[in-house]
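Supplementary Methods. Inverse-folding protocol.

Structures were first reduced to a discrete structure-token string of length 389. This string, shown here, constituted the complete conditioning input.
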């Protein structure tokens, strides 16, 4: 029999692609999928470059207007699988922690395990992954030709760049690489949606939240650890956006000044995807704080009244008798407890987590500055300033 604090393993990894990677021994220890991501990205890229050189297009593949293809295949795909490798074990540990710590009490344990099983069925669904694959390949057939920006993000952009001439390179990229990248992206968003659904179901349980918990989040602070590990996929999405902006600026479809509006939009998108859903715990944490303030302030009133009567109002109390008394330390501890309750965060998001998200989003966008200020000119100007010229 299982111990009372043992639960089924929570995981978002599964489905046909994960099974294939496991069979090919590209998935290690059940969750280390980075080798699968590297293999998929390199396979697509090597075939693409090989076909390009065979058709005399090799040099054109390394121009700025084609940077999006390299970023999608060599950067974004491996980073998505690297993020899986990092974040999925932390999600499993979070599920174990909230049971072990009592955040999920025994009365809610059965419903909690039922939610884990539902997530397991959905993430292993071949039907769901098949529909995602169908959507990834069907988008060019139903979307307008100019709906997707960049020169390597759509059929229209690639064909225009190559002079509307069909080549094997074009067919491989448009017919397989680009739809396959969309499949992996949609697959990741599907798993992210399952995570948010799991947290929403968790939020609806009768949780045992403690207002004086040292994480200032009533015991939900481990969520910060989980979300810090979304770094890889955030960098991947931002890098794809950066490459697309670079393509449009290089092709003259977009002015550099337009980034003033687009960069905040990208940051906002990342906040919406990876932070905003945590607001679902606002009501729970608000109620916990209000209840905690009422209970701990009531206890503080009773303790302070007794302390005042014993050590202040009592004429027998003396400085000598107060030396070394534990009552003083207890009063300080109680004051600290009330301060913790008063300082509770109503959303399980910390400054470190927000800093990681913003930094991971901005970093891939920084090279775009070189389109406006070439690095040689910047270095020359800096040297002139340092030399006083």
């Amino acid at each position: 029999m299982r111990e009372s604090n043992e639960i089924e393993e929570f995981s978002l990894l599964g489905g046909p692609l994960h099974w294939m990677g496991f069979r090919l021994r590209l998935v290690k220890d059940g969750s280390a999928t980075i080798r699968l991501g590297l293999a998929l990205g390199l396979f697509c890229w090597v075939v693409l470059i090989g076909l390009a050189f065979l058709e005399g297009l090799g040099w054109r593949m390394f121009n700025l207007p084609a940077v999006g293809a390299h970023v999608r295949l060599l950067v974004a795909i491996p980073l998505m699988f690297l993020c899986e490798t990092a974040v999925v074990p932390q999600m499993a540990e979070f599920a174990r922690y909230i049971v072990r710590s009592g955040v999920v009490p025994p009365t809610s344990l059965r419903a909690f395990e039922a939610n884990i099983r539902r997530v397991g069925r959905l993430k292993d669904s071949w039907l769901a992954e098949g529909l995602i694959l169908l959507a990834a390949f069907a988008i060019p057939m139903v979307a307008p030709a100019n709906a997707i920006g960049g020169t390597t993000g759509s059929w229209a952009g690639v064909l225009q760049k190559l002079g509307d001439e069909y080549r094997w390179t074009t067919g491989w990229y448009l017919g397989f690489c680009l739809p396959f990248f969309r499949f992996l992206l949609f697959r990741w968003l599907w798993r992210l949606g399952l995570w948010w659904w799991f947290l929403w179901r968790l939020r609806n349980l009768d949780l045992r939240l403690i207002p004086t918990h040292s994480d200032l989040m009533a015991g939900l602070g481990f969520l910060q650890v989980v979300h810090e590990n979304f770094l890889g996929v955030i960098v991947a999405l931002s890098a794809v956006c950066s490459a697309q902006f670079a393509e449009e600026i290089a092709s003259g479809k977009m002015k550099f000044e337009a980034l003033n509006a687009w960069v905040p939009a990208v940051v906002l998108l990342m906040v919406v995807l990876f932070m905003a859903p945590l607001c679902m715990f606002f009501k729970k944490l608000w109620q916990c704080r209000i209840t905690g303030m009422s209970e701990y302030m009531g206890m503080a009133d009773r303790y302070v009244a007794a302390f005042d009567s014993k050590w202040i109002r009592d004429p027998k109390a003396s400085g000598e008798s107060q030396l070394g008394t534990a009552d003083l330390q207890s009063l300080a501890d109680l004051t600290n407890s009330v301060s913790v309750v008063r300082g509770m965060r109503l959303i399980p998001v910390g400054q470190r987590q927000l800093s990681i998200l913003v930094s991971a989003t901005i970093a891939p966008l920084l090279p775009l500055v070189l389109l406006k200020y070439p690095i040689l000119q910047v270095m020359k100007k800096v040297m002139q300033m340092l030399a006083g010229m």
